């Protein structure tokens, strides 16, 4: 972003960026806690994730409200306009990623058994990639790095492939007479939630591409 004659405008843009990063860090923390609960079910820790998600919702609302105020008050054009619009869209996507992390925490908080090694590995692989994608897309946003954003966008294909493999394994698990049907269903929802979280992060990457280049990523 360029410096402006009105310092208040610069402060507005800096505040939006700061709030996006604070929201991003909240969501990252939700994801990290969700995996801890997935490995060691803990309803109380799941409640902490729910509280964090309420905070994420508040940040999203504040960013959208502040962004709308800045658009109404300032004559934002070109890169500044794209930055504000991208940030407002990012807030919504980040909030949705937080929702999926909360769902993972709540559902796995009541599990009674451990997953077999292969399934556990695939869940961890999806989760690790999502966290990496989120960290990279936040960096791309802060540094206006379109190349890094494009790498995040392309990485969603790998995540989708892992999800398809995991989905197949979970469906096959329903035929196991010893399986807990409710837990199998919850695992399917968790896997789908992780896949959708990746989609939202991929959408953020496309928004960052547009913010920097002024053109839609194809």
- Cα Rg: 19 Å
User: Structural class of the secondary elements?
Assistant: mainly alpha
Mean pLDDT: 90
- Shape field: elongated
Poorly predicted ranges: none
Biggest sheet layout:
none
Number of strands: 0
Beta-sheet strand percentage? under 5%
List keywords for this structure.
single chain; 218 residues; mainly alpha; 6 helices
Characterize this entry briefly.
This protein is an all-alpha fold and 218 residues long. The protein is 84% helix and 0% strand.
Can you walk me through this structure?
- The chain is mainly alpha-helical.
- Helices cover 84% and strands 0% of the residues.
- The longest helix has 33 residues, at 7-39.
How do the strands and helices of this protein lay out in sequence?
Elements: H1 7-39, H2 43-73, H3 78-108, H4 117-143, H5 146-173, H6 181-213
């Amino acid at each position: 972003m360029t410096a402006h004659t009105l310092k208040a405008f610069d402060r507005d843009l800096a505040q939006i960026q700061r709030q996006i990063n604070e929201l991003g860090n909240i969501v990252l923390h939700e994801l990290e806690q969700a995996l801890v609960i997935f490995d060691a079910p803990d309803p109380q820790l799941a409640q902490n994730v729910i509280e964090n998600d309420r905070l994420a919702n508040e940040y999203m609302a504040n960013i959208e409200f502040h962004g709308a105020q800045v658009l109404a008050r300032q004559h934002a054009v070109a890169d500044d306009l794209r930055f504000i619009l991208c940030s407002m869209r990012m807030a919504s996507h980040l909030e949705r990623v937080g929702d999926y992390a909360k769902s993972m925490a709540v559902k796995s908080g009541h599990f009674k058994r451990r997953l077999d090694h292969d399934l556990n590995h695939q869940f961890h692989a999806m989760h690790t990639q999502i966290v990496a994608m989120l960290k990279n897309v936040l960096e791309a946003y802060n540094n206006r790095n379109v190349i890094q954003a494009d790498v995040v966008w392309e990485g969603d294909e790998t995540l989708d492939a892992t999800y398809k493999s995991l989905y197949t394994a979970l469906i096959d698990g329903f035929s196991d007479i010893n399986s807990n049907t409710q837990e199998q269903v919850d695992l399917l929802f968790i896997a789908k939630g992780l896949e959708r979280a990746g989609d939202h992060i991929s959408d953020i990457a496309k928004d960052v591409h547009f913010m920097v280049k002024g053109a839609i990523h194809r």
